[in-house]
Amino acid sequence: MKKGLLIVLSGPSGVGKGTILKELMKDESLKLSYSVSMTTRDKREGEIDGVNYHFVSKDRFLEAIDNDELLEYAEFVGNYYGTPLDEVVKLREKGRNVVLEIEVQGCKQVQEKINEALTIFLVPPSMEELENRIRGRKTEPEEIIQERLAKAEREMKMMDQYKYVICNDDIDLAVEIISVIIKRYMEKNS
């Protein structure tokens, strides 16, 4: 059995990573498995531990860093986020294509450890549209919204570190393009 792909999906907060990933996961032919990240942030309404994230204490997260248990990690607005390495390795060995929905700095860490990672960066049609999407969530105070927008500006400058950059102004089209890219890489890998 061939080892599965490692796919990194990044982009600024509010660009639609979660929505696109949800659509991609419906296509069984892509053999996708979502890597559930670990975080120290509080659960949002409707989120489930072990499904959306592994919600852990800061001490447990720092222990995971010290024990080299994470493929990548980052800190944002006082919370840590990271990818448990063991889970990724097990899924890929089973032939599953593992998708990481992670930050730009996390992608850089992944590329340093696994150079064959398929990296995709999603961009919004405009910064104004991105701001509308973030505000439309109505989940965060103004201070956090401003931090997310500032971070988005910084992240957009790093898109050239990715193999593919896709504009998400049409979800169906973005999903179709990413699906084609994944299938091509699966063919190369077989």
Textual characterization of the structure:
This protein has 190 residues and is of the alpha/beta class. It has a single domain (6-189), classed as 3-Layer(aba) Sandwich (Rossmann fold), CATH 3.40.50.300. It contains seven helices and nine strands. The chain has helices at 17-25, 58-66, 85-93, 104-113, 127-137, 142-156, 171-189, and strands at residues 6-10, 32-34, 38-39, 54-55, 70-76, 79-84, 97-101, 118-123, 164-167. The strands form two sheets. The protein has a five-stranded parallel sheet, with helices on both faces. It has a four-stranded mixed sheet with strand order 4-3-6-5. The longest helix has 19 residues, at 171-189.
Q: How are the SSEs ordered, and which strands pair?
A:
Elements: E1 6-10, H1 17-25, E2 32-34, E3 38-39, E4 54-55, H2 58-66, E5 70-76, E6 79-84, H3 85-93, E7 97-101, H4 104-113, E8 118-123, H5 127-137, H6 142-156, E9 164-167, H7 171-189
Parallel strand pairs: 1-7, 1-8, 2-7, 3-4, 8-9
Antiparallel strand pairs: 3-6, 5-6
Helix pairs in contact: 1-7, 5-6
Brief summary of the model shown:
The chain is an alpha/beta fold and 190 residues long.
User: In which range does the helix fraction lie?
Assistant: 40-55%
Write the CATH homologous superfamily: P-loop containing nucleotide triphosphate hydrolases
The number of helical elements comes to 7
Let me know the number of strands: 9
Fold-level CATH name: Rossmann fold
Number of domains: 1
